[in-house]
Design goal:
Blueprint: E1 7-12, E2 15-20, H1 32-47, E3 53-58, H2 69-74, H3 83-92, H4 96-103, E4 108-112, E5 116-117, H5 119-125, E6 129-133, E7 137-139, H6 153-161, H7 163-172, E8 175-177, H8 178-184, E9 189-191, H9 196-208, H10 212-225, H11 230-245, H12 248-259
Parallel strand pairs: 2-3, 3-4, 4-6, 5-7, 6-9
Antiparallel strand pairs: 1-2, 7-8
Protein backbone atom coordinates (compact mmCIF):
# COMPACT_ATOMS: atom_id res chain seq x y z
CA UNK A 1 0.00 0.00 0.00
CA UNK A 2 1.33 3.43 -0.96
CA UNK A 3 2.19 5.77 1.89
CA UNK A 4 -0.34 8.53 2.50
CA UNK A 5 0.70 12.01 1.34
CA UNK A 6 2.77 13.95 3.87
CA UNK A 7 0.75 17.06 3.12
CA UNK A 8 -3.04 16.81 3.30
CA UNK A 9 -4.71 19.50 1.19
CA UNK A 10 -8.23 20.83 1.79
CA UNK A 11 -9.87 23.59 -0.23
CA UNK A 12 -12.32 26.09 1.28
CA UNK A 13 -13.10 28.48 -1.55
CA UNK A 14 -10.03 30.73 -2.02
CA UNK A 15 -8.44 29.32 1.18
CA UNK A 16 -6.29 26.18 1.21
CA UNK A 17 -5.59 24.26 4.44
CA UNK A 18 -2.35 22.24 4.28
CA UNK A 19 -1.78 19.77 7.12
CA UNK A 20 1.49 18.01 7.90
CA UNK A 21 0.25 14.43 8.19
CA UNK A 22 2.66 12.25 10.16
CA UNK A 23 1.23 12.48 13.71
CA UNK A 24 2.98 9.25 14.72
CA UNK A 25 6.37 11.02 14.32
CA UNK A 26 5.06 14.41 15.48
CA UNK A 27 5.20 15.51 11.84
CA UNK A 28 9.00 15.29 11.71
CA UNK A 29 10.58 16.19 8.38
CA UNK A 30 13.47 13.89 7.57
CA UNK A 31 12.43 12.41 4.23
CA UNK A 32 13.46 14.17 1.04
CA UNK A 33 10.08 13.20 -0.43
CA UNK A 34 8.34 15.29 2.25
CA UNK A 35 10.37 18.36 1.32
CA UNK A 36 9.69 17.76 -2.36
CA UNK A 37 5.98 17.50 -1.61
CA UNK A 38 5.95 20.85 0.18
CA UNK A 39 7.97 22.48 -2.60
CA UNK A 40 5.60 21.11 -5.25
CA UNK A 41 2.60 22.37 -3.27
CA UNK A 42 4.11 25.87 -3.09
CA UNK A 43 4.79 25.94 -6.83
CA UNK A 44 1.27 24.74 -7.67
CA UNK A 45 -0.30 27.24 -5.28
CA UNK A 46 1.59 30.16 -6.76
CA UNK A 47 0.38 29.14 -10.24
CA UNK A 48 -3.26 28.91 -9.09
CA UNK A 49 -4.50 32.49 -9.01
CA UNK A 50 -7.77 31.40 -7.39
CA UNK A 51 -5.91 30.61 -4.13
CA UNK A 52 -5.69 33.73 -1.98
CA UNK A 53 -4.54 32.36 1.41
CA UNK A 54 -2.98 29.21 2.89
CA UNK A 55 -3.27 27.82 6.42
CA UNK A 56 -0.44 25.50 7.46
CA UNK A 57 -0.91 23.22 10.47
CA UNK A 58 0.02 19.81 11.87
CA UNK A 59 -1.99 16.65 12.45
CA UNK A 60 -2.19 15.28 15.97
CA UNK A 61 -0.67 16.95 19.02
CA UNK A 62 2.39 18.55 17.39
CA UNK A 63 2.90 21.18 14.73
CA UNK A 64 6.29 19.81 13.68
CA UNK A 65 9.08 18.14 15.67
CA UNK A 66 11.76 19.08 13.13
CA UNK A 67 14.21 16.36 12.13
CA UNK A 68 13.61 12.72 13.00
CA UNK A 69 15.98 11.98 15.91
CA UNK A 70 15.61 8.24 15.34
CA UNK A 71 17.12 8.72 11.88
CA UNK A 72 19.95 10.72 13.45
CA UNK A 73 20.73 7.83 15.79
CA UNK A 74 20.61 5.37 12.91
CA UNK A 75 22.52 7.76 10.62
CA UNK A 76 19.95 7.02 7.96
CA UNK A 77 18.05 9.08 5.40
CA UNK A 78 19.30 12.64 5.17
CA UNK A 79 21.68 11.96 8.06
CA UNK A 80 23.56 9.17 6.24
CA UNK A 81 26.80 9.27 4.31
CA UNK A 82 30.01 11.27 4.18
CA UNK A 83 30.05 15.04 4.83
CA UNK A 84 29.74 15.93 1.13
CA UNK A 85 26.78 13.55 0.80
CA UNK A 86 25.08 15.00 3.87
CA UNK A 87 25.67 18.56 2.61
CA UNK A 88 23.97 17.64 -0.64
CA UNK A 89 21.14 15.93 1.25
CA UNK A 90 20.39 19.18 3.06
CA UNK A 91 20.62 21.29 -0.08
CA UNK A 92 18.39 19.00 -2.14
CA UNK A 93 16.16 17.98 0.77
CA UNK A 94 14.94 20.09 3.66
CA UNK A 95 16.39 23.32 2.25
CA UNK A 96 13.85 23.04 -0.56
CA UNK A 97 11.22 24.10 1.99
CA UNK A 98 12.48 27.59 2.97
CA UNK A 99 13.28 28.36 -0.66
CA UNK A 100 9.80 27.28 -1.78
CA UNK A 101 7.90 29.01 1.02
CA UNK A 102 9.88 32.21 0.56
CA UNK A 103 8.89 32.27 -3.12
CA UNK A 104 5.26 31.32 -2.42
CA UNK A 105 3.28 34.42 -3.36
CA UNK A 106 0.14 33.50 -1.43
CA UNK A 107 -0.02 34.67 2.23
CA UNK A 108 0.51 31.82 4.71
CA UNK A 109 -0.89 31.58 8.25
CA UNK A 110 0.69 28.96 10.51
CA UNK A 111 -1.79 27.40 12.95
CA UNK A 112 0.70 26.15 15.54
CA UNK A 113 -1.36 23.49 17.27
CA UNK A 114 1.44 22.04 19.41
CA UNK A 115 5.23 21.86 19.75
CA UNK A 116 7.23 23.53 16.97
CA UNK A 117 10.77 22.33 17.59
CA UNK A 118 13.99 22.85 15.63
CA UNK A 119 13.13 22.77 11.95
CA UNK A 120 9.48 22.88 13.07
CA UNK A 121 10.03 26.31 14.60
CA UNK A 122 11.83 27.43 11.46
CA UNK A 123 8.91 26.15 9.38
CA UNK A 124 6.54 28.30 11.45
CA UNK A 125 8.84 31.28 10.87
CA UNK A 126 8.45 30.78 7.12
CA UNK A 127 4.78 31.72 7.43
CA UNK A 128 3.63 35.33 7.29
CA UNK A 129 1.41 35.11 10.38
CA UNK A 130 1.47 32.64 13.30
CA UNK A 131 -1.42 31.74 15.61
CA UNK A 132 -0.56 29.46 18.54
CA UNK A 133 -2.38 27.12 20.87
CA UNK A 134 -1.81 27.97 24.52
CA UNK A 135 -0.31 24.46 24.72
CA UNK A 136 2.24 25.15 21.97
CA UNK A 137 5.97 25.06 22.68
CA UNK A 138 8.80 26.56 20.65
CA UNK A 139 12.52 25.78 20.55
CA UNK A 140 15.44 26.50 18.22
CA UNK A 141 16.92 23.38 19.73
CA UNK A 142 19.67 22.38 17.29
CA UNK A 143 22.58 23.06 19.68
CA UNK A 144 21.05 20.66 22.21
CA UNK A 145 21.90 17.91 19.72
CA UNK A 146 25.27 19.37 18.75
CA UNK A 147 23.89 20.77 15.50
CA UNK A 148 23.21 24.15 13.89
CA UNK A 149 20.06 25.41 12.13
CA UNK A 150 20.51 23.68 8.79
CA UNK A 151 17.33 24.91 7.16
CA UNK A 152 17.75 28.68 7.24
CA UNK A 153 16.73 29.28 10.85
CA UNK A 154 19.65 31.63 11.45
CA UNK A 155 18.21 33.88 8.72
CA UNK A 156 14.52 33.41 9.56
CA UNK A 157 14.31 33.67 13.34
CA UNK A 158 16.12 37.04 13.77
CA UNK A 159 13.79 38.58 11.19
CA UNK A 160 10.78 37.49 13.24
CA UNK A 161 11.87 38.21 16.81
CA UNK A 162 15.06 40.29 16.51
CA UNK A 163 18.70 39.31 16.86
CA UNK A 164 18.95 39.44 20.66
CA UNK A 165 16.08 37.06 21.30
CA UNK A 166 16.99 34.88 18.33
CA UNK A 167 20.52 34.57 19.72
CA UNK A 168 19.15 33.59 23.12
CA UNK A 169 16.91 30.89 21.65
CA UNK A 170 19.51 29.61 19.19
CA UNK A 171 22.49 29.48 21.53
CA UNK A 172 20.69 28.00 24.55
CA UNK A 173 18.34 25.77 22.57
CA UNK A 174 15.85 26.27 25.40
CA UNK A 175 12.11 25.85 24.97
CA UNK A 176 9.65 28.71 25.42
CA UNK A 177 5.90 28.46 25.93
CA UNK A 178 3.15 30.19 24.00
CA UNK A 179 2.94 33.14 26.39
CA UNK A 180 6.66 33.86 25.96
CA UNK A 181 6.32 33.41 22.21
CA UNK A 182 3.61 36.08 22.23
CA UNK A 183 5.83 38.39 24.28
CA UNK A 184 8.67 37.84 21.79
CA UNK A 185 6.42 38.61 18.82
CA UNK A 186 6.98 35.10 17.49
CA UNK A 187 3.20 34.63 17.31
CA UNK A 188 0.44 37.16 16.78
CA UNK A 189 -2.17 35.51 19.00
CA UNK A 190 -2.51 32.70 21.54
CA UNK A 191 -5.84 30.91 21.71
CA UNK A 192 -7.35 27.76 23.18
CA UNK A 193 -6.28 24.54 21.44
CA UNK A 194 -9.66 24.01 19.78
CA UNK A 195 -9.58 27.55 18.41
CA UNK A 196 -6.18 27.50 16.69
CA UNK A 197 -7.33 26.25 13.31
CA UNK A 198 -10.64 28.17 13.28
CA UNK A 199 -8.83 31.42 14.14
CA UNK A 200 -6.19 30.82 11.47
CA UNK A 201 -8.89 30.11 8.92
CA UNK A 202 -10.76 33.25 10.00
CA UNK A 203 -7.64 35.33 9.29
CA UNK A 204 -7.11 33.50 6.00
CA UNK A 205 -10.66 34.34 4.94
CA UNK A 206 -10.13 38.01 5.87
CA UNK A 207 -7.05 38.03 3.62
CA UNK A 208 -8.87 36.12 0.88
CA UNK A 209 -11.67 38.71 0.87
CA UNK A 210 -9.19 41.06 -0.83
CA UNK A 211 -8.07 40.89 -4.48
CA UNK A 212 -5.46 38.15 -4.73
CA UNK A 213 -3.12 40.13 -6.98
CA UNK A 214 -2.90 42.84 -4.31
CA UNK A 215 -2.16 40.53 -1.39
CA UNK A 216 0.39 38.56 -3.43
CA UNK A 217 2.28 41.66 -4.49
CA UNK A 218 2.00 43.22 -1.03
CA UNK A 219 3.53 40.07 0.47
CA UNK A 220 6.37 40.23 -2.05
CA UNK A 221 7.04 43.87 -1.16
CA UNK A 222 7.16 42.99 2.54
CA UNK A 223 9.62 40.16 1.83
CA UNK A 224 11.86 42.15 -0.51
CA UNK A 225 11.76 45.16 1.82
CA UNK A 226 13.69 43.21 4.46
CA UNK A 227 16.82 43.30 2.32
CA UNK A 228 16.41 46.28 -0.04
CA UNK A 229 17.24 49.93 0.32
CA UNK A 230 14.32 52.34 0.15
CA UNK A 231 15.01 53.62 -3.38
CA UNK A 232 14.83 50.23 -5.16
CA UNK A 233 11.85 49.24 -3.03
CA UNK A 234 10.04 52.39 -4.16
CA UNK A 235 10.82 51.49 -7.78
CA UNK A 236 9.44 47.98 -7.26
CA UNK A 237 6.38 49.39 -5.48
CA UNK A 238 5.67 51.76 -8.38
CA UNK A 239 5.88 48.90 -10.88
CA UNK A 240 3.60 46.68 -8.82
CA UNK A 241 1.13 49.52 -8.33
CA UNK A 242 0.96 50.13 -12.07
CA UNK A 243 0.18 46.46 -12.60
CA UNK A 244 -2.49 46.56 -9.87
CA UNK A 245 -4.22 49.58 -11.44
CA UNK A 246 -4.82 47.59 -14.62
CA UNK A 247 -6.59 44.59 -13.07
CA UNK A 248 -10.29 43.84 -13.17
CA UNK A 249 -10.38 43.20 -9.43
CA UNK A 250 -8.94 46.64 -8.62
CA UNK A 251 -11.67 48.36 -10.67
CA UNK A 252 -14.30 46.07 -9.13
CA UNK A 253 -13.02 46.74 -5.59
CA UNK A 254 -13.12 50.51 -6.14
CA UNK A 255 -16.65 50.32 -7.57
CA UNK A 256 -17.80 48.14 -4.69
CA UNK A 257 -16.30 50.57 -2.16
CA UNK A 258 -18.13 53.53 -3.74
CA UNK A 259 -21.37 51.56 -4.04
CA UNK A 260 -21.08 50.20 -0.48
CA UNK A 261 -21.27 46.52 -1.47
CA UNK A 262 -19.02 43.48 -1.43
CA UNK A 263 -16.80 43.13 -4.51
CA UNK A 264 -17.24 40.24 -6.92
CA UNK A 265 -13.67 39.16 -7.55
CA UNK A 266 -12.53 37.24 -10.63
CA UNK A 267 -8.85 36.79 -9.74
CA UNK A 268 -7.85 38.81 -12.79
Amino acid sequence: MAEAPFLLIERDGPVVIATLNRPETRNAISETAYSEEIAAFCAATTRDMSVRAVVLTGAGKAFCAGGNVKHMVERSGMFAGAPFTQRNSYRTGIQLIPAALYELEVPVIAAVNGPAIGAGLDLACMADIRIASDKALFAESFVKLGLVPGDGGAWLLPRVIGMARASLMTLTGDTIDAAKALEYGLVSEVVAPDQVLPRAVEIARAIAANPGHATRMAKRLLREGQDMKLAPLLELSAAYQALAHHTHDHHEAVSAFVEKRDPVLRDE
